[in-house]
């Protein structure tokens, strides 16, 4: 089972190698890098290219490791015990009817191999990360209420992303293969854009990349990334623009810059020391 990229995703040789090693050795792959460099999209393209179903967790600061595996709905069971379960098919004497499995649980219980995406793991706290250590390494977790161990029928392809908003613990990092996706240089960006806009005129492409990289050098709080570049080019194409220039990029600037402060700075309204 080898991932060679897709018609929509540019895969550098280094990234291709570590993705396929992680798949073969059944190790979690931790992807770091600037937002918009394709970390999350890689998981979806692996799923699509290899024909594997996806289980996805968009991590939040409130997440606990256990709920990514399962949740025991005690309130529903109590309600059914008092008022009956009606025609729902639930049996109050069967705890399995009140277990709700999260993305990790579903991936482990599935009879087929799946892609498991834990997106922006850095949003969770260190306790959550520590709770996932053995789960991801051993491919198993315990349902405490019935002391039942769930072991992955087939180890999923585990892809974890981080925007480095918070440092991950050393024990967590030790259990992963790690890869930093650098921001693409212009020569790679040409190939990425061509995947999405194969018929883009050369002059249009050159002018777009010149303006894009110039904007990235202006010191914006959130400089535009690859995703914004593709949106910008798409918006200009949709509006019928023949390319950036003659003020065209200004009318589409909201596709490139997203922070209010950056938009004001671009338009020359932001005064030094005002904020």
Largest sheet, order of strands side by side? Answer: 2-5-8-1-9
Helix content: 40-55%
* Biggest pleated sheet: 5 strands, parallel
Order of helices and strands: HEHEHEHEHEHEEEHEHHHHH
The proportion of strand residues reads 5-15%
What is the CATH class of the largest domain? Answer: Alpha Beta
Structure, described:
There is one protein chain. With 275 residues, the protein is of the alpha/beta class. The protein folds into 2 domains: 13-65 and 106-180, P-loop containing nucleotide triphosphate hydrolases (Rossmann fold), CATH 3.40.50.300; 186-266. Helices cover 42% and strands 15% of the residues. It has a 5-stranded parallel sheet, with helices on both faces. Strand 6 and strand 7 (148-151) form a beta hairpin. The longest helix has 15 residues, at 202-216. It starts with 12 loop residues before the first helix and ends in a 9-residue tail after the last helix. 27% of the residues are buried.
Topology, element by element:
Layout: H1 13-25, E1 29-32, H2 39-50, E2 53-58, H3 65-69, E3 70-72, H4 74-83, E4 99-101, H5 103-109, E5 114-119, H6 126-138, E6 140-143, E7 148-151, E8 157-162, H7 170-174, E9 177-180, H8 186-196, H9 202-216, H10 226-239, H11 248-251, H12 260-266
Main traits of this protein?
275 residues, alpha/beta, Rossmann fold, 2 domains, 5-stranded parallel beta sheet, 12 helices, 42% helix, elongated
């Amino acid at each position: 089972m080898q991932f060679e990229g897709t018609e929509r995703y540019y895969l550098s040789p280094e990234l291709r190698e570590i993705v396929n090693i992680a798949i073969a050795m059944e190790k979690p792959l931790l992807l770091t890098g600037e937002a918009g460099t394709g970390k999350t999209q890689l998981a979806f393209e692996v799923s699509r290219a290899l024909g594997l179903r996806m289980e996805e967790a968009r991590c939040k600061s409130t997440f606990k490791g256990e709920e990514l595996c399962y949740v025991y709905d005690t309130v529903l069971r109590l309600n059914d015990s008092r008022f009956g379960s009606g025609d729902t098919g639930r049996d109050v004497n069967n705890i399995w009817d009140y277990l709700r499995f999260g993305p990790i649980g579903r991936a482990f219980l599935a009879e087929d191999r799946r892609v498991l995406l834990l997106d922006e793991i850095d949003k969770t706290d260190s306790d959550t990360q520590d709770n996932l250590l053995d789960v991801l390494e051993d491919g198993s977790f315990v349902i405490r209420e019935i002391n039942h161990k769930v072991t992955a029928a087939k180890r999923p392809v585990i892809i974890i992303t981080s925007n480095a908003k918070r440092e991950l613990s050393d024990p967590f990092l030790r259990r992963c293969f790690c890869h930093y996706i650098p921001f693409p240089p212009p020569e790679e960006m040409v190939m990425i854009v061509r995947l999405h806009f194969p018929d883009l005129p050369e002059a249009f492409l050159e002018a777009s990349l010149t303006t894009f990289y110039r904007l990235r050098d202006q010191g914006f709080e959130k400089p535009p990334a690859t995703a914004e570049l593709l949106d910008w080019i798409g918006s200009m194409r949709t509006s019928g623009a023949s390319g950036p220039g003659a003020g065209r990029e200004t009318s589409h600037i909201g596709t490139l810059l997203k922070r209010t402060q950056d938009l004001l700075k671009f338009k020359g309204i932001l005064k030094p020391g005002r904020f």
